[in-house]
Amino acid sequence: MNVEQRYRFIYKPLVFVAALAPLAWLVCGAFGWFGASLGADPVKKLEHECGKTALQLLLLTLLVTPVRNLAGLPHLLRLRRMLGLFAFFYVVLHFTVYLVLDLELNFGTVLGDIAKRPYITLGFTALLMLIPLAATSTNRMMRRLGRRWQNLHRLVYVIAVLGVWHFYWQVKRDVREPLVYAAILALLLGYRVVRAVARRRLTSMSGSATAPGRT
Amino acid sequence: MPLRSPRIAPSEITPPEVFFNRRTLLAAALAGGASALLPAAQTPQPPGARLDYSRNPRYAVGEAPNKLEEITSYNNFYELGTEKEDPQRNAHFLKTEPWSVTVDGEAQIKGKFTLEEILKPHALEERIYRFRCVEAWSLVVPWVGFPLSALLARFKPTSSAKYVEFTTLYDPSRMPGQRASVLTWPYVEGLRIDEAMHPLTLMVVGLYGQTLPSQDGAPLRLIVPWKYGFKSIKSIVKISFTSREPRTAWNIAAPSEYGFYANVNPQVDHPRWSQATERRIGAPFLAARRSTLLFNGYADEVAGLYKGMDLRRYF
Question: Among all residues of chain B, which has the CA nearest to that of A38?
Fold first, then answer.
């Protein structure tokens, strides 16, 4: 099997299954299968776990490029779209649990929350921003948008910041866990900043006018 | 102080046979036939031991209480961890024997008392109260305890005792959560003296007829049913009568979010979330959210304590 085939027939299916595992575990918990449990407040558990899984997948998506560059694994890029789409999937689940199970479809409260509760405003903004990214994730859209595709998808950095901020802001007091997410995100974004700066310096030294834009 | 009956429609009151049946079942399940041998006097018992008490029918809420499992697996007790399941998982750290309570401040009788001395004169009663957390979830709990007023009266507070301050045990070996400075330790809570003397304010030693499990604040905790749960301090080792408003743990942590009074009030939102509604733990899917009641439904009894006060300012 060559690298292409390994990704296509082994790694991608593995990532697909792994990304569904958190959901499978929550479903087991909801029905009490395999000793899994969602605890005394299943709704909050579902809501929080979906949200955290979404953030974890988003951070994983952002980890692809650094690992790819540092470990010299160019094909890793083939996993990135799937990770990003699963992050979107869990964000949608998170929002659905909040809307249907937590607020019980009380739309007045939802609108009030989005308008008045800063942490919900942040989270909802991140959800809205993810929609165009998911919609333009197909090969056809990538071709059609060309250079603009990359610019559009840089929104993911803003989305990740909003997502972690949303997590941090809703915690009552013990912010240690969201701070871990923030630290990881800072590293992932920091890597890109350092790399962009280094690249710029390199190109200005070599006198070349244009630099490849990948970050 | 005369007890006033809460305004509850007759149709809301759980029929006695349901209670008695439940109690019979519980007694049979928990005591295993040994209940007849238990002493009548209130001597401290290890968590989960059956208590001798009588039910006070004045205090019911017209709803079935939450399951024991829910009340003991979903706790905010940061001394045993900040996740809801942590206190149950870490309950074994909190050994409650021996236990003593120090009484000091503006009172004639002060000193260090064993738990046995604290509890001895008080007959225990069961009261079913609503419990509303500041995080907008709620429970219905059958507590076992006695009015705080009866305990406080024994120490003969002086006229300068305007407030009562309570302190939780500080001992990181028994309360591993205290190794992280999530809050200022030890946890401190307080009440105005009239709130403390109010007949609804309960010193609690048990729930569901058994001594408190550690995660619920063993061996001695406060329950103030018209205030957010964080006022109902757990595992108390000190009671001080003070002339000044105590500096309380959550108020120190975030003064704009947690006031000294912390009365349940659907019209005064937490700065980050709404307090208008709450979700009842254990309620069926899509039927758990309900309107939060002013003073958690105890307005008839306690609204008078706050006459003329701006509840938005004194939140």
Answer: B85
Q: Strands of chain A (E only): list them.
A: none
| Residues whose CB falls within 8 Å of the CB of residue B163, separated by 6 or more in sequence, listed in order | B190, B191, B192, B193, B196, B241, B242, B243, B244, B245, B246
pLDDT tens figures, B25-68? 444 444 433 443 444 456 676 778 899 999 999 999 999 999 99
pLDDT for B39 equals: 41
Q: Which pTM was predicted? A: 0.86
Digit-coded pLDDT (tens) for B84-137: 999 999 999 999 999 999 999 999 999 999 999 999 999 999 999 999 999 999
Q: Domain extents for chain B? A: 10-306
B286 touches chain A (CB under 8 A): yes
Query: To the nearest whole angstrom, how far is the Cα of B102 from the nearest Cα of chain A?
Result: 29
For residue B236, what pLDDT band results from cuts at 50, 70 and 90?
very high
> Which CATH class name applies to B10-306?
alpha beta
Chain B: residue whose CA lies nearest to A105: B286
Q: Which alpha helices (DSSP H) does B178-293 contain, by range?
A: 193-196, 249-253
Decide if B19 contacts B126 (C-beta within 8 A).
no
Q: Counting runs of H as helices and runs of E as strands, what totals does chain B give? A: 8, 13
Domain boundaries, chain A: 3-201
Which residue is closest to B76 within chain A, CA to CA? A172
Does the distance separating the beta carbons of B137 and A41 come in below 8 Å? yes
Among residues 172-191 of chain B, which lie with CB inside 8 Å of chain A? 180, 182-183
Closest CA of chain B from A39, distance in Å: 7
Judged by a CB distance cut-off of 8 A, whether residue B253 touches chain A is yes
